Amino acid sequence: MKLYISIDMEGITGLVDNTFVDSRQYNYTRGQHIMTDEANHVIGTAFDEGCKEVIVNDSHSKMNNLLIEKLHPETQLISGDVKPFSMVQGLDASFAGAAFLGYHTRAATKGVLSHTMIFGVRNMYINERVIGELGFNAYVAGHYGVPVLLVAGDDETALEAEELIPGITTAIVKKRISRTSAVCLTPEKSGQLLREKTKEALANRSRVKPLVPPDQPVLKIEFANYGQAEWAHLMPGTTIDDNSPTVTFQAKDILEAYRAMLVMTELAMRTAFC
Fold first, then answer.
1. Which of 3, 84, 183, 222 is 20 to 30 Å apart from 260, CA to CA?
2. Model confidence at 274: pLDDT above 70
3. Would you please indicate which residues are annotated as catalytic (active-site) residues?
4. Which residues lie across from 53 on neighbouring strands?
5. Cis? peptide before 82, omega within 30° of 0
6. Residue 104 in contact with residue 151, Cβ under 8 Å?
């Protein structure tokens, strides 16, 4: 059995504000250690439960946060930027399942450090269904027939995952108080929980179906301001709404939609504020 892990940073226990997830800030190194430990709890349990191969994709910011020298020795790590499929780089039909660790809720919703890709996105849609990083990544997994078995993060992220994927196992390592505060498990307790939930998720894998994406999906991104939409609209094939900061793209499949989203959000980040 082969397991794919995508690990973000905002949903890791104890990481509650930008000082933990921004490499320029004073708590970032602490965040790296806690993030790496959470990954190892899941990786080690996966091998103990019969997985023969585990591939971990570092999925936060510049995607070079995990401390490779401290990872489980049998792990293969995908690290660095730029990656054509970002948070789901390396995912394909060869995997029996996927786990999303350290994940957070989508933009404009409750949750610790909630956002969708960039802070300039207010809402993102596939065929009028609002989604965040979790949903979009699960759709890519579904394209390959791979079910998302486990999601770890705060309590609001668990709710988002359960609404998207019936039967999924969730590990709640912290409970939201506000966007930058939470009641957090200690790393020791979060590790215990992650080991238990990984066992549960692997045991229940036959009950979870892949989140199959629609054919020829329409991607729509609502930005925070019109300047961001104008930048995103520079991508060929897009249309822009005259009355709202919303850009639309008709994709041939979810993989094209995903890459279009990456281009549009990267362009939107060029917007200057004065």
1. 3
2. no
3. 115
4. 2
5. yes
6. no
